[in-house]
Design a protein that fits this description.
It contains 15 helices and 15 strands. It is an alpha/beta fold and 472 residues long. It binds one RNA strand of 74 nucleotides through helix 1, strand 9, helix 6, strand 12 and strand 13.
Length: 472
RNA sequence: GGCGCCUUGGCGGAGUGGCUACGCAGCGGCCUGCAAAGCCGUUUACACCGGUUCGACUCCGGUAGGCGCCUCCA
């Protein structure tokens, strides 16, 4: 088990995970008022892979990524579309599950919905009201920001400078800093839940506080994450609510991913410069999308464009080509190492063994160091180049294990898909015959025919073979 | 205006006080019947100006430019 360190937004420092305790991770998922875009996929991928890595290191890990399915935007979008808000939310939630599912990373351990956490939300608000941290006003309930000393400690901004603009009905608030915990039902809203303050619905921030403790248990849990655009006010407000109510910190580490940018501007629905996840998956495939999303450090902004996705496709092809050339990808590394030992005389095996194992170890070290996926991938590519230069026992097994850790394990499983059909194999045999007769014109015609069928011919010292043509 | 972050070779993108990141693209070569795959080489990368240092792309200060949040946003 490695020591895993993560940069904490609140302190700005690297913080180590406690190996003795369960690592609870809560990451803010999307508000489901439209189909998710590439930017929404980034935290899903980062936190899914982080949880996967931690589990592989032996940390007992539980990842919760919520769905916010009650929100002003949902009411607005539903009204515009002429459908019920619950219907729209359910549709978009299903689409979110489908789109992120296609990434091939599995599901988080928990994916709570705000609409299914109402009881816990009401209980949490009631506690805040009882303790004097919140007050009812005209059917709404507001959090009293000045009742909480630590306000602003996450986003590092002085309270005097801020304003909560989310609710512009202003008059109901005692202080402009206050924000809504509960919103009384308003004209035109087609859903509401009962509460001690009358029918209404949760405000934007409270659902995360409630879902996080419901899923991860006693506070503080290890990591709270999400996009950097949530630092203020969303996460600041979560901290205020949870810590005021429970008297304990909400999370030990605050971990934020940078924004995806197009033309150096953040991709966002309001900017209109979005690229939907489903379209990216359609055009470039899940491996390329994942490869793209881990190509930069999670904390930094990441440039987006067709060129970047095409590069990701090329990277993935390189890895796949390499794995196809290996016959040890299905083995575990130790066995692959042993089989390499003594392949050509004693002595050389041991040193060679340490190359693959060493690379895997360095790969894991990079992930343990603030989840540095680009550095990890550079180690993977180093191994690929080296093993293409010379015999490196266990390289295929080591690379397969690396890729599995970052959600690209399917590249090593390529052998599982259907091989070339009989027709293609027949053509390949004909081409070999033509080449033997040095009738290269005919051989090339057959190669073109195979290309049309979607198969690429690769000649090697061991004879010709077929691989699926890229982009097929 | 406030808070925070950033500026690396054609592009994307890591990192370090002194040693080739890595990937993609281009060019040249090797291999190949020709390709593909792969390998090698390649255009002296670190915004600018000062400072600290034996030595800075890496630390400090300033200048210029950019981004994020401060309103819904992953």
């Amino acid at each position: 088990m490695r020591e895993v360190r993560i940069r904490d937004t609140m302190s700005g420092e690297l913080r180590s995970l406690d190996p003795g305790r369960e690592v609870g991770i809560y990451a803010c998922g999307p508000t489901v008022y439209s189909r998710v875009h590439i930017g929404n996929a980034r935290p899903f991928v980062i936190f899914s892979l982080l949880a996967r890595f931690l589990k592989s290191e032996g940390y007992e890990t539980r990842l919760a990524i919520n769905v916010t399915d009650i929100n002003d935007k949902i009411y607005a979008a539903a009204a515009e579309a002429g459908v019920g808000s619950a219907t729209l939310a359910a549709e978009m939630t299903a689409a979110y599950f489908e789109d992120t599912g296609r990434l091939g990373l599995g599901r988080p351990d928990a994916e709570p919905l705000a609409s299914e956490t109402i009881d816990a939300i009401v209980e949490l608000i009631a506690t805040l009201v009882e303790d004097g941290h919140a007050y009812e006003s005209g059917g709404d309930v507001y959090f009293s920001v000045r009742s909480f000393d630590g306000y602003g400690k996450l986003s590092h901004r002085p309270t005097e400078e801020m304003e909560q603009g989310e609710d512009d009905s202003g008059s109901l608030k005692r202080d402009r800093l206050d924000f809504a915990l509960w919103k009384g039902r308003k004209e035109g809203e087609d859903s509401s839940w009962d509460s001690p303050w009358g029918p209404g619905r949760p405000g934007w921030h409270i659902e995360c506080s409630a879902m996080a403790e419901a899923e991860l248990g006693e506070l503080p849990f290890a990591i709270h994450g999400g996009g950097s655009d949530l630092v203020f006010p969303h996460h600041e407000n979560e901290i205020a609510q949870s810590e005021a109510a429970r008297g304990r910190p909400l999370a030990k580490i605050w971990m934020h991913n940078g924004m995806i940018e197009t033309d150096a501007a953040k991709m966002s629905k309001s900017e209109g410069n979005i690229f939907q996840l489903s379209e990216a998956l359609d055009r470039f495939g899940p491996e390329a999308v994942v490869s793209y999303l881990i190509s930069g450090h999670y904390r930094q902004p990441l440039a987006f464009g067709a060129e970047q996705l095409n590069e990701a496709v090329a990277r993935v092809d390189r890895l796949r080509n390499f794995l196809r050339s290996r016959d040890d990808t299905g083995q575990d590394l130790e066995r692959a190492d042993r089989s390499g030992t003594g392949a050509d005389g004693a002595g050389t095996g041991l040193a060679a063994t340490s190359v693959a194992a060493g690379a895997l170890s360095e790969f894991r070290d990079a992930l343990a160091d603030d989840f540095n996926t680009p550095r990890a991938m550079s180690i993977a590519f180093d191994l690929v180049r080296r093993a293409n230069q010379e015999e490196v026992p266990g390289a295929g097994a080591a690379l397969a294990e690396m890729l599995e850790l970052v959600g690209l394990g399917s590249l090593a499983a390529a052998g599982d898909d259907d091989g070339p059909p009989a027709e293609a194999l027949e053509l390949l045999g004909q081409r070999e015959a033509a080449r033997a007769e040095r009738d290269f014109a005919r051989a090339d015609r057959i190669r073109d025919r195979l290309d049309e069928l979607g198969w690429e011919v690769r000649d090697s010292a061991d004879g010709a073979s077929l691989v699926p043509r890229p982009g097929r």
